[in-house]
Write a structure and sequence with these properties.
It contains 7 helices and no strands. The radius of gyration is 44 Å and the shape is rod-shaped. Helices cover 89% and strands 0% of the residues. It has 2 domains: 13-71; 76-176. By secondary structure, it is an all-alpha fold.
Length: 177
């Protein structure tokens, strides 16, 4: 069979070279090539878009997890110094107890109570500012020490305020008799 093919090619060689492929054949070849180029370029574009989407999804996930960890972690006094942590809890409970006692006298002496509360409000604001500063401070030990001083001052002021209220009540009691 291969001899027949070779013979046919040798006999008709001049016809192949002279005539060449028809214009119709070239048109079909070009149409097929155009179809292949279009489908190939669409696949590349789809692949590129999928790659970009995957990259964005991974980047967003990493960014979100990093920010979540940063925002939700708050440094506490006990993280810096365990003794200061215990002290802070003690002062906080003492302050709360004294504020409750002071609240009992609010009805009897509203003007005096307002004055006392305004004094403590400034100390509370300072304490909250120190808590915020603790989160970013390069020297957290100093900030914690200042926080302890603030709590101690609050407790002392409340004690003195309660003492003043007791004196006022004692004075009223003596003057009403």
């Amino acid at each position: 069979m291969s001899n027949k093919l070779e013979g046919f090619v040798k006999d008709n060689k001049k016809a192949f070279e002279a005539k060449g492929p028809s214009d119709e054949l070239w048109g079909r070849i070009e149409a097929e090539l155009d179809k292949k180029k279009q489908s190939h370029s669409k696949k590349i574009k789809l692949y590129q878009w999928m790659s970009i989407a995957a990259l964005l999804a991974v980047s967003l996930g990493i960014y979100s997890s990093y920010n979540y960890n940063q925002v939700n972690y708050e440094i506490a006094v006990a993280d810096i110094n365990a003794d200061y942590g215990k002290k802070a809890v003690h002062f906080a409970s003492l302050i709360e107890e004294k504020r409750d006692s002071l609240q009992l006298y609010a009805k009897e002496n509203p003007n005096l109570f307002k004055k006392f509360v305004s004094d403590l409000k400034k100390l509370d604001q300072d304490y909250e500012e120190l808590k915020r500063e603790l989160q970013t401070s390069p020297n957290p030990e100093t900030v914690v020490s200042e926080m302890m001083k603030n709590l101690e001052i609050q407790a002392n002021i409340l004690s003195k305020q309660l003492s003043i209220i007791d004196q006022v009540n004692q004075y009223r009691k003596e003057n009403t008799i």
